[in-house]
Design brief:
alpha/beta, Rossmann fold, about 210 residues, about 25% strand
Length: about 210
């Protein structure tokens, strides 16, 4: 496993991502250190999806440091996916990192993606109910969803009854100086009706 000091090529690509407008504000190294906070929660996962990979965080960073895992970087935007494919080629990852373009609600019905992942990571994908519903169709049982959280007590963001409908439950909260994460665990099989049709999780949230 690499650390932040060994990923100069990823750093350069994230600078490129920023130049294209795909990466949010703040120093690139800040994005990298925040991405590294996910490592504790997904070490040992053989298959990982970055849900809404965008400008490449945390997906590109995690794919570099967890060099034995297979990754799917999912995004609905054509230009961002083009950048992500360029980045994975530059990093020599194409044998184990795949970029998939499309909506999560639709792709979670794809036989090649449904229930195929030990972990799904998400950063700025959407409200908790949307993230949970869009992620659950991709997760194995057991599996974990790991979501970036704002600082402070955010326990009220994750409704136990709403998660139960998806076969999920609140797990460990991870807080470090570089960021906070909420782990959501798969505890029972997901009902085949989830996720609902494209746009429905946001229009009619479960919680």
């Amino acid at each position: 496993m690499s650390d932040i000091n060994d990923i100069d090529q990823v750093r350069a690509l994230l600078e490129e991502s920023r130049a294209w407008g795909f990466l949010g504000p703040g120093p690139v190294d800040q994005h990298i250190t925040h991405s590294m906070t996910y490592v504790h929660a997904i070490t040992g996962a053989g298959t990982v999806m970055d849900l809404g990979s965008g400008g490449g965080v945390p997906g590109l960073v995690l794919a570099e440091v967890l060099s034995t895992a297979e990754f799917v970087l999912l995004d609905s935007n054509i230009r961002r996916c083009e950048f992500l494919r360029h980045a994975t080629e530059q990093l020599g990852m194409t044998s184990r990192v795949r970029v998939v373009e499309g909506r999560a609600e639709e792709l979670a019905r794809d036989d090649g993606l449904r229930h195929r992942f030990d972990a799904v990571v998400a950063r700025s994908f959407g409200p908790p109910s949307v993230v949970a519903e869009c992620a659950v169709g991709f997760l194995n049982n057991p599996g974990v969803l790991v979501v970036s959280e704002p600082p402070g007590d955010t326990s009220s963001r994750w409704d136990a009854k709403g998660l139960e409908k998806l076969g999920l439950a609140v797990g460990e909260r991870i807080s470090t100086p570089d960021g906070s994460l909420q782990v959501i665990q798969v505890v029972s099989p997901c009902d085949g009706k989830y996720p609902r049709k494209t746009g429905t999780p946001a229009k009619r949230p479960l919680f």
